Backbone:
């Protein structure tokens, strides 16, 4: 274990004089994990090397840029952006998502978070990264706004409650992701004709994002050819939620496939004892084949913010087409 020595600040100017900001290397990882635990606690997301490696090293868009703040050899701050790519037709848009950040409690309130964040943005600007996006909470949102982040708004959310919850709670079998590996390839190798801005489905993305994700288990409903619905089951205060995070339609998807996916979805809802189903994202702009009841679409999903880097375009009005899978908390 790597422990942190308590810090007693004198004057801010003296403090900053000794501070070093540098790129992280592999030998820093144990200290970074310790810092995340000390600063943030375990909370809902365990701070582990397994999660870190999945998120920041195995990412098919590339390894994450990481800056650390160091004081006399002690790592007291870390700032990480997750590499991402969007595509609009044939245009590739390099992006990052603002994710992990931690400042040791003894060093908080000294401007280290802002310094690390702005320094990392300058590095990304030189690489041609056009924008940074994230889904901050109410506590962190004002700080991001001061550093140039703009509010896009909250994602639309559709909810459907199961009022006839039965006693049948036989859990569905674990999803066999290997059975649809060819469908993954079909989706990832598809043509790029949409004028909407969507995640660039590079080879290996779906496997990384859903099959190997250590945060929670994902499941799917699919005929193996024309559609893929990805969901996860979440326990909440009012009961189980079936949260749809991605839905892909391919050529050949018609009336029969629409009936099939909805019938299979109802079977899962019954087997899992689901109290309500949710579907958030910008796919409501299309003719969505998922039957989600009569409740209106509400703008109460995750709040999205955007920050220009190496672009002068106005980001907010662009034709975004995020799925919840793009924006779930990592």
Residues:
């Amino acid at each position: 274990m790597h422990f942190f020595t308590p810090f007693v600040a004198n004057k801010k100017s003296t403090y900053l004089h000794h501070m070093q900001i540098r790129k992280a290397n592999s030998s820093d990882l144990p200290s970074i994990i310790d810092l995340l635990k000390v600063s943030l606690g375990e909370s809902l997301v365990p701070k582990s090397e397994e999660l870190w490696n999945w998120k920041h090293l195995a990412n098919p868009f590339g390894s994450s840029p990481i800056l650390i703040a160091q004081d006399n050899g002690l790592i007291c701050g870390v700032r990480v952006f997750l590499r991402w790519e969007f595509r609009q037709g044939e245009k590739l848009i390099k992006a990052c998502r603002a994710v992990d950040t931690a400042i040791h409690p003894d060093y908080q309130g000294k401007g280290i978070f802002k310094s690390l964040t702005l320094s990392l943005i300058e590095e990304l600007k030189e690489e041609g990264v056009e924008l940074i996006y994230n889904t901050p909470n109410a506590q962190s949102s004002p700080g991001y706004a001061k550093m140039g982040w703009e509010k896009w708004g909250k994602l639309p959310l559709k909810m459907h409650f199961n009022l006839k919850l039965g006693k049948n709670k036989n859990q569905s079998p674990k999803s066999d992701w290997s059975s649809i590996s060819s469908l993954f390839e079909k989706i990832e190798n598809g043509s790029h004709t949409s004028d909407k801005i969507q995640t660039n489905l590079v080879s290996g993305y779906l496997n990384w994002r859903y099959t190997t994700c250590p945060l929670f288990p994902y499941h799917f409903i699919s005929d193996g050819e024309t559609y893929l619905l990805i969901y996860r089951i979440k326990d909440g205060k009012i009961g189980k939620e079936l949260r749809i995070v991605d839905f892909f339609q391919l050529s050949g998807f018609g009336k029969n496939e629409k009936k099939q996916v909805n019938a299979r979805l109802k079977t899962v809802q019954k087997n899992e004892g689901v109290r309500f189903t949710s579907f958030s994202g910008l796919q409501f702009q299309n003719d969505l084949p998922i039957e989600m009841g009569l409740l209106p679409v509400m703008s109460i999903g995750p709040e999205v913010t955007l920050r220009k880097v190496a672009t002068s375009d106005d980001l907010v009005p662009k034709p975004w087409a995020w799925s919840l899978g793009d924006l779930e908390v990592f």
